[in-house]
């Protein structure tokens, strides 16, 4: 780890910027996430949420600014930073022809686990995300909700202190949404969790704090209750905040 002290945030984003040609997708973004926080990352389509998360996960190189996980700069110390991170990307997991077990074992081995430990890690991650019934099915044959949960299981394999989850409940049915929200709530006390979502009710249900971004910039950073109190309901507040910035 880097120069991490006891009270240091697990995620530190400082003046993070991503430009694609002349277009600025993420514009001078700064925030921190401490253990025990579930930070909801909200914004309209194209606001820059996924790009920010990809930079945190080391999949996109920042144009300027820094992102640190447990004190490690993701650009300068990517291996150390990723060791402490579980990342659920948007969309479905790669390797569609692999079975669920095969893919998760592959991911566990890539993380350095061998033998029974790899098997135990996979078993535990499948249990947490309720994948046992489809464990021998190729990923490409799964429904959208199950594919999402395979991605989530992969992010949880190494029980990381930091989770970055890009729309974790996208495509899940109401029961599955409920299960995943409960899982996040159970893990929350020990971890720093950043989740992006379009579902505003989710923010009230599981997030301790919410950041709203529009056009790559922060337009609000508050508790869900404080945000909702700014108007008749969270929906209206979200629309007003993100339309003002457009
Ligand atoms: N590789 C790329 N090249 C050019 N533009 C890109 C690239 N990746 C993202 N963008 C643009 O950056 C902006 C932010 O995209 P991003 O996916 O981060 O938004 P988002 O907030 O996650 O949106 P959504 O809610 O739809 O997932 C969009 O206008 C997108 O088209």
UniProtKB/TrEMBL annotation:
Which keywords has UniProt assigned to this entry?
A: ATP-binding, Nucleotide-binding, Transport
One MF term in the entry's GO annotations: ATP binding
Q: Which Gene3D superfamilies match?
A: P-loop containing nucleotide triphosphate hydrolases
Q: Where is the ABC transporter domain?
A: 11-240
Q: CDD domains under this entry? A: ABC_DR_subfamily_A (cd03230)
Question: Record's PANTHER family?
Answer: ABC TRANSPORTER, ATP-BINDING PROTEIN (PTHR43335)
Name recorded for this polypeptide: ABC transporter ATP-binding protein
């Amino acid at each position: 780890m880097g120069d991490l002290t006891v009270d240091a945030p697990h995620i530190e984003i400082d003046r993070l910027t991503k430009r694609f040609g002349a277009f600025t997708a993420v514009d001078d973004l700064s925030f921190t996430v401490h253990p025990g926080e579930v930070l909801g990352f909200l914004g309209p389509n194209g606001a820059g949420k996924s790009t920010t998360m990809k930079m945190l996960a080391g999949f996109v190189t920042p144009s300027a600014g820094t992102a640190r996980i447990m004190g490690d700069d993701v650009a300068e110390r990517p291996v150390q930073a990723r060791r402490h991170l579980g990342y659920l990307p948007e969309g479905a997991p790669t390797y569609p022809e692999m079975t669920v077990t095969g893919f998760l074992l592959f991911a566990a081995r890539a993380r350095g686990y061998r033998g029974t430990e790899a098997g135990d890690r996979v078993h535990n991650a499948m249990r947490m995300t309720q994948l046992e019934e489809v464990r021998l099915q190729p990923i490409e044959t799964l429904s959208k909700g199950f594919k999402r949960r395979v991605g989530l299981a992969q992010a949880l394999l190494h029980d990381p202190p930091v989770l970055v989850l890009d729309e974790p409940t996208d495509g899940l049915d109401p029961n599955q949404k409920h299960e995943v929200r409960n899982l996040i709530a159970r893990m929350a006390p020990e971890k720093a969790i950043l989740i992006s979502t379009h579902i505003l009710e989710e923010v009230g249900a599981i997030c301790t704090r919410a950041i709203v971004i529009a056009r790559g910039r922060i337009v609000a950073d508050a508790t869900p209750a404080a945000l909702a109190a700014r108007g008749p309901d969270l929906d209206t507040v979200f629309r007003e905040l993100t339309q003002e910035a457009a």
